[in-house]
Amino acid sequence: MRAADPRLGAVLAYLPEAAARALGRLPPSLAQTVEEVRLRAERPLAVGLAAGEPLVTATGQVTQEAERALTVSAREVRDCVERMAGFSVYALEEEFRRGFLTLPGGHRVGLGGRTRLADGRIRTVRPVTSLAVRVARQVPDVALPLAARLTDGRGGLCSTLLVGPPRSGKTTLLRDLARLASRGVPSLGLAGAAVVVVDERSELGGGLDGVPSLDLGPRTDLLDGCPKADGLYMALRSLSPRLLVTDEIGSAADVAALTEAAAAGVRVIATLHGDSLEEAGSRPLLRPLLESGLFSRWVRLGRRPGPGAVLEVRALEGGRPAADGRH
Amino acid sequence: MTAARPLLAGLLALVLGLAGVDLGRRRLGRTEALEAVAAGLELLRTEIRYAALPLPAALRRVAGMAPSPASRLFGATAEALDRGAAGEDAVADAMGRLSRDLPLLPRQRLVLAQLGAVLGRSDRDDQADHLTRAIEHLGREAARDRPEAQRQASLWRTLGLLAGVAAAILVL
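Above: the input entities. Below: the structure tokens describing the complete assembly.
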């Protein structure tokens, strides 16, 4: 089934036939704005847009009425998961344990369903009864205006923390910042530099057997499917990066590894779930990271007028907004 | 005419004798196929448990190592998966395409069909358990089948030989 939008079309190949047909009939203007496809067992098909989560009918119309929408069966969800797993669930045990899969092209699939525990920890999700398929989109140069505000005046980018709520475009901007830093932007005085992307969930590079399917720039090394903290240490030890890029920091191990990177003089660009620096800074885990002064820029992202909206860029000193912080 | 009769008699004896040998070999083929499939499944269990290879790749690797006709069964299943068929459909499709080369009884095919329904659908330990059960089941079928197959193969060879001799005597 073909879709008006090629990125959405790449996802449709994995979906149940009826759902793929319905989504393939979405008007092109709408198809291009689909951020997520939501499949829930015995529930209506839905799409995630910047403006909400409308339901989709069998003929590709959006509606708010569940009765009119196409219902996805439990069997369809099960078959869909197996197709996404390449009929090899056993080869993706770690992914199932962590609750997501990544499709070729970097499309992330969140898994919902019955969690199975072993020794008090999640062992797997089985059966899977809902899927959130995040459509990965590469938007070349989308981060160019932002990069202009993050240059350090010495040919590189400042260490930067991108903070925003889910689906605010953090990953898309981060990917493009990595690409721009790697390629270099002469008009901004940005020299191309060695970049290492630590891509735990294969979302930034869309790695397929370790080779990025999305453009991360000519001087970028990708650590694909690699736990963030381990990857950051590995990159520092062996790949001599000028810039480290990673998504969604959150654990104590991530914080320790980033602090180590800062001590080694490597610049870091990372993302963080949150609404504001103050809110992020109030989390016990992140406070030391922010107070360490590792990041000299903070970017707050939002969803309005659309994903990737830069609401604020601030200079930081010791983890706090500089006196004349707006940048 | 007198010279043709011994020639015809010899030819008949040879053809009927060979037919008996062939029927006997075919009867033994089921046991050999069961043993070959069980051996292939053991290889598949190793690939899944220790290498965690994706199923199509694991099946292709096993197809390159397993004895015939199991190698063709695993290869055809991998091809069906590549075409997008689910595990149970892929195994059914492969068995359908190889029905002549895989002379299994319906209950023996059912073991493979049931395995196909769970193949690739759970974690490694679970997959290994399913494969172990199928291997043991097919192994028992082969062990049960072998004495009877040998007896029947011997019978077919003897019958072929006797029929050949009888036909030759009648011609002479």
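Note for the figure: The CA atoms of residues 10 and 105 of chain A lie 8 Å apart.
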